[in-house]
Sequence to fold (278 residues):
Amino acid sequence: MAFDRILFGTAGVPNSTEKKNSPVDGVKRIHELSLDCMQLEFAHGVRMKEEVSSALRKVSYELKVPLTSHGPYYINLNAREQDKIDSSVERIIQTAKISDLCGAESMTFHAAFYMKDSPYDVFDLVEKSLNVIEERLSRLDIEIELRPELTGKTSQFGSLEELISLAKMVNSCKPCIDFSHLYARTGEINSYAEFMNILDLLEKELGFDAVNNMHIHISGISSNSKGDLKHLNLLQSDFKWQELLKALKDRKCKGYMICNSPNLEKDAQMMKEYYMAL
Ligand SMILES: [Zn+2]
Fold:
């Protein structure tokens, strides 16, 4: 879709939604909170009744709350057993199908674990699977952005460099930039100048679309040297979210910013207020 600014939303149904298991009510709550978008979380499985997805599509269109989605956690395109790779491919396709029914145009997922393999070999495998997925989706006439996520743990495939290379190799593939994970993964990139460098790099490598149509994740975060992560609320963490928002605004970036702090909508609202006042 064409954006006119950064849109702010939550990873899943906002906490303050009365019926927390109803994504339709979640979209209504997003609208009440004056937030902009919502991410459907299929973290623990891709199941949704058809009437729910069509209701979601309708309410999202009527309230102008666009949707993104997040695939299941148990995806590993570098699994030891071929049947586990196959079922990971199926899960991504299933997520794409349901997301498409709901009207979502961008979906993210954690692509793979290194399993101590060489990152180059893992890259080749992930690329191969994504090409298969892309072809199958195009045969199903499903047009959706496949966005492998910038992951926070060093055991997980998904560094910034890997995602940029993937996006060059696979047509429908674009990165989902999780700036909090990037900070946790690298131990740096937590200042205005460094955020600007990342945005410059994205545009230089992937073109204007990479900053004009973004899918971003944000939360407070803490990590140790093993890359073990804890998602925190922004004010409990040293992540420099104001500097990131300034960089995004100065650079006129556009797209989705999905907040996955534990307090979800509170941080999303805090970020939106700050960004709109810049
Ligand atoms: Zn994720």
In short: The first helix runs from residue 23 to 32. The chain has one domain: 6-277. The pocket of zinc ion is lined by residues 70, 110, 149 (CB under 6 Å). The longest strand covers residues 6-11.
